[in-house]
Specification:
The longest helix has about 35 residues. It is built from 30 helices and no strands. The protein has a domain of about 80 residues. It is globular. By secondary structure, it is an all-alpha fold.
Length: about 650
């Protein structure tokens, strides 16, 4: 974020500055420039917003309509204060008159609802024209904040749904009748902007974003990279493996694929290039690992809270179910970078490049806030909000033991301000996601989509899964994690439920493929951000990222067809272990095919057989598992003799 810059890597290590890359690929980093006294005032305003959110979350017992409308009023006010209308060079300490008009009108429209909430509730369905105009102003100004902080893709999706409602989606014959009904539903009810996404955002997500801002300032990101260096840095292709391990750990606190890619990639990508990886592969390895952070418990890009709310299950249960699929995803990325390193004959980091273990051991205390959070959430001893608040306090205490990253009053203000700013884009996207979900509900469009895909699939679950995957990737392009899940849960998850896929598995499936949109062309924001750091070809990087993230294309099919992987059905330790092992072997087979290397360089028959074996292991039946493992074993035996033959020939 431009107001609160991360420490950049050395200039000779990063071709483009971290700030420039973030501004180009992360809309939330494209902010106004405030200096001097105005900067301090803006920081204080953002910090007050964070404190307001913490207070409301933990202590206030306000009417829900008052709580949510006041929250969105703050989002609109701060959105226009922080984000300019377009990218590019910004005048220092300047906000144009039209932004002030939008700020005042938008904020006032939400505060009108806050102040007169009781009267509005009593009105029922009767609204005057001027009230409808207030609702239109509220919707449009929030949409503009979302465009500035998140981007156009989510607004294009929302606009298409609203246009459908105003044309053929509603039965009211007149346009004005449709418009009035749409505004009432989207603004004056709990089925639009003020539905589950923004409710969950205000109650849970914001306080976890604030926690992430505090945790970041304890130096935990550097600790993750150092720890990953100690664990895997010395092995073949060490820097790429460091990127995978570090990003898996950073994903526990990160809420953005792009931010994660740029944050750790500024260190790992130059090292990968020096080791011998191509620029495209180096950028792709970091992007695919960083995107995986969004599916890594306990935070999961904050979508875990929405999922728990949608499914009516405890948050601790969601993160427990997410562990094995996430580990298999990262195992897939790890396997691919290992095979690439072996194929290229790459070495690991030298001894002097790897931190000493005693240095890491002395910093283990940095994990205490995370450990406390996981314990409090999984034990259900505290509410989620209280657990996050206590973890923030733990992060402050932990920082006192680190002179370099000690949270002084000034840095406390910066952390609160960074947390408040980080919440703006997420909240705006959640509001727009609520509009999408509300439009789908009031028009009955969900049934149209579901019936269409069910008809196309011919009642074959695997075809329905494939078609749903395509929908998720298209709808998820350029959309933040939380809003991404909201859209998928409203549009795509019901399709799979209709086809007999268990509810939890269906929601995990659409969540995974929504996230994969950050890697798949043409809107592969995480891959493009990594490409900017590596100075590689963006499209080649995106294609390579998709190849590296092959686990994300396999694992969801496995748990959709066999929900035991996510601890659904009748799981036992042996059943879970069996499906984990077969899935890992399947991922290895597909990864080897895509890399063209296992023990030695693969010819095309070996690659085809390896791919077939990997795909057979997706099916949960025992017969396909036996065939898949047998075929892959034959391929590896073939590879072994080929390796021996090549070794003798080269001797």
């Amino acid at each position: 974020m431009a107001l609160f810059k991360k420490k950049a890597a050395p200039a000779d290590a990063v071709p483009q500055s971290v700030e420039d890359v973030m501004k180009k690929y992360d809309r939330e980093s494209n902010t106004r420039v405030w200096e001097g006294v105005p900067r301090i005032l803006v920081q204080c305003t953002l910090a007050l917003f964070s404190l307001f959110c913490i207070y409301v979350t933990l202590f206030a017992t306000w009417l829900e309509e008052i709580r949510l409308t006041s929250f969105v009023a703050c989002i609109v006010f701060l959105g226009y204060l922080i984000f300019p209308a377009k990218k590019g060079v910004q005048k220092t300490n300047h906000i144009p008159w039209y932004d002030l008009v939008l700020m005042v009108c938008g904020t006032a429209s939400y505060l009108y609802y806050t102040i007169f909430a009781f009267d509005i509730i009593k009105q029922g369905a009767k609204f005057d024209t001027w009230q409808i105009l207030i609702g239109i102003v509220a919707i449009v100004t929030l949409a503009e904040v979302c465009r500035r902080s998140v981007g156009l893709p989510i607004l294009i999706v929302a606009g298409a749904f609203v246009a459908y409602a105003l044309t053929v989606g509603l039965s009211n014959p007149s346009f004005m009748g449709k418009l009035n009904y749409t505004v009432r539903s989207l603004f004056y009810s709990k089925e639009g902007i003020f539905s589950a996404p923004i409710n969950t955002c205000s109650k849970f997500i914001v306080i976890f974003i604030i926690f992430g801002a505090f945790l970041e300032r304890t130096g935990i990101a550097d600790f993750f990279i150092d720890a990953a260096n100690v664990v895997v840095g010395r092995f073949s292709g060490g820097p790429a493996k460091v990127a995978v391990v570090a990003s898996a750990m950073e994903g526990m606190v990160s809420g953005s694929s792009v931010a994660n890619t740029v944050g750790s990639g500024s260190v790992t990508i130059p090292l990968m290039k020096k080791t011998g990886y191509t620029p495209e592969f180096a950028a792709a390895a970091e992007a695919s690992a960083s995107t995986g952070g969004q599916i890594m418990p306990p935070i999961m890009g904050a979508a875990a809270f929405l999922m728990a709310d949608n499914l009516g299950v405890p948050y601790g249960s969601i993160i427990g179910k997410a562990v094995l699929p996430a580990l298999l995803y990262f195992a897939g990325v790890f396997i691919t970078v290992h095979l690439e390193a072996k194929k290229l004959g790459l070495k690991g980091l030298s001894k002097d490049q790897i931190p000493k273990f005693r240095h890491i051991w002395k910093q283990l205390y940095l994990l205490l806030p995370l450990i406390l959070l996981i314990y409090l959430v999984s034990s259900n001893s505290k509410t989620i909000q209280t657990a996050a608040a206590l973890s923030i306090i733990a992060a402050i205490v932990v920082s006192l033991f680190n002179k370099k990253n000690r949270l002084t009053p000034k840095r406390l203000l910066e952390a609160l301000a960074a947390g408040g700013q980080g919440a703006l884009g997420v909240a705006a996207a959640c509001g727009i996601a609520g509009i999408i979900a509300g439009t789908i509900t009031m028009t009955g469009l969900a049934n149209v989509i579901i019936n269409g895909i069910v008809a196309l699939s011919g009642n074959l679950t695997i075809i329905a899964l494939f078609l749903t995957m395509i929908c998720c990737i298209i709808l998820g392009m350029g959309v933040p994690t939380t809003a991404n899940y909201c859209i998928m849960a409203a549009t795509c998850a019901p399709i799979l439920v209709r086809m007999g896929v268990p509810m939890v598995a269906a929601h995990f499936f659409v969540f995974y493929f929504g996230i994969v949109a950050d890697l798949t062309p043409p809107v592969a924001l995480a891959a493009y951000a990594g490409s900017a750091i590596a100075q590689s070809n963006p499209m080649k990087t995106a294609i390579t990222s998709t190849k590296l993230a092959i686990g994300a294309f396999i694992v969801p099919y496995v748990f959709a067809l066999n929900p035991i992987m996510i601890l659904e059905g009748n799981p036992s330790f042996l059943k879970v272990l069996l499906i984990a092992c077969t899935s890992l072997i399947g991922i290895f087979g597909v990864s080897a095919c895509l890399e063209g290397y296992a023990i030695a360089k693969m010819n095309w028959p070996q690659r085809i057989l390896s791919l077939a074996a990997g795909l057979l292991l997706i099916d949960p039946s025992g017969l396909t598992d036996v065939i898949g493992i047998s075929v892959l074993a034959l391929v590896l035996l073939w590879q072994f003799f080929q390796f021996k033959k090549n070794k003798i020939a080269n001797a």
